[in-house]
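User: I want to check something. If I give you two sequences, will you return the structure for each one separately, not as a complex?

Assistant: Yes, each is folded on its own. Here is the first sequence with its structure:
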Amino acid sequence: MKDKNKILAGLVIFIAVITLPFWFNMGKAAPAPELELTAKAKAAKVCVMPTEYMKAEHMQLLDVWRHNVVRNAERAFVNPEGKLFDMSLSNTCLDCHSNKEKFCDRCHDYASVRPYCWDCHIDNPKGE
């Protein structure tokens, strides 16, 4: 019986210690950053895919684009609305979202991710 109480007390202490960071940080998460769109992006009003899709899936889309361009020499992307785009990070995406610090970096820093896009692509292809 004595051992049962010790084990139970040990489990309660263990669970309390393990969950302490969650209790300490509850409600303190930083809100997602607001993105600053360029005048061109605001004027276009439409991205290659819907905004919610791009927020969640843009890296998968860019991976498919990279594969199709490099492996299959395909350069054309047709979105669900039937609009044609060039599969190009530098000439399509960065044409509207040209300020990497105010657009890309804000979310990537918030999510603590370091994409490897910039290993090959320059972040300001038009020198703006």
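And separately, the second sequence with its own structure:
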Amino acid sequence: MKAKALICATALTAICASPGAFAQVAGLQPLGGTVEQTNALLKGWSVRRALVDEPVYNDLNDKVGSIYDVIISPDRKATYAVVSVGGFLGMGKHYVAIPVDHFEIRDGNLFLAGATKEALKSVPEFEYNKLEKATKPHKVKAE
């Protein structure tokens, strides 16, 4: 996976650096970003590819759950990871929100120190804000 990302990043860099490539200019590229933003994008993570559905392990190397979602705060920072615990074939899963700074990454795997399935199931279940749709930016209808 890392090799694939490196190949894609290298190819994108080569295309952007080629003589025929044009630099993005702020204000002229309504959907693009600045060169600095594009460079930051190349160094960033895809939540969907790198985190969602990835297993979470404890200190004993036991799988205690999987990442279900990542919550982004209004200041644009990832603040919580929603962990899916237990269940079978999508039934009986328990979702808990854990602050992202509680996780460690070791050898490309996510670890949650001291966690067990039982301890995570005892945490009150995470529920999405029922007002979430009301607080989202309004969608613009095409005319």
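Because they were folded independently, the notes below concern the second chain alone. The first strand starts at residue 55 and ends at 57. Residues 19 and 71 are 40 Å apart (CA to CA).
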